[in-house]
Amino acid sequence: MGGSNTIFLLNMILVILVLAIVILGGAVILIILKRKKQEQENTYNEEEQKNKKSEGSKVQGRESIHKFMEFDEVIDNMIVRKNRTQYIMVIQCKGINYDLLSEAEKEAVENGFTQFLNTLRFPIQLYVQTRSLNLHDIIEQYREKVNNVQIEINRTRCKNKESKTCWK
Description:
Strand order of the largest sheet: 1-2-3
Radius of gyration: 44 Å
Oligomer: single chain
Number of domains: 2
Number of helices: 4
Order of helices and strands: HHEEEHH
Structural class: mainly alpha
Number of strands: 3
């Protein structure tokens, strides 16, 4: 039984040695891979810094603007994009007070807008902007004008009729 214990002990030592060699080999491989990766990152960073320095010293020209803005040209206040397959234009319209219109006028506005939209053959995007107005000053000016007109009317009455209820 002494010989089998020795063989078992030697087998255990051999397994431990093999495991230690495999672990050390794996550690060496990991260290080598990390160094290579770090060297690649360093060279990449150096090249990137060189490119930034050379780009910074160049004068930015029309080509870089066209590349950044992604349009071919501007013709008749219209932006031409994507090899003349896309056109962009802005149309600005003045607003109307739709609520003050009569029914016939409302219908005419709606029909006109519908006809305009039907003439377009391409997709469109609508942007509607509304503004709140402070009409307090305008209303005060209007009241002053109405008062001035009322005073003029009373003066004219007094001159024409010689009324006893005239203001002075």
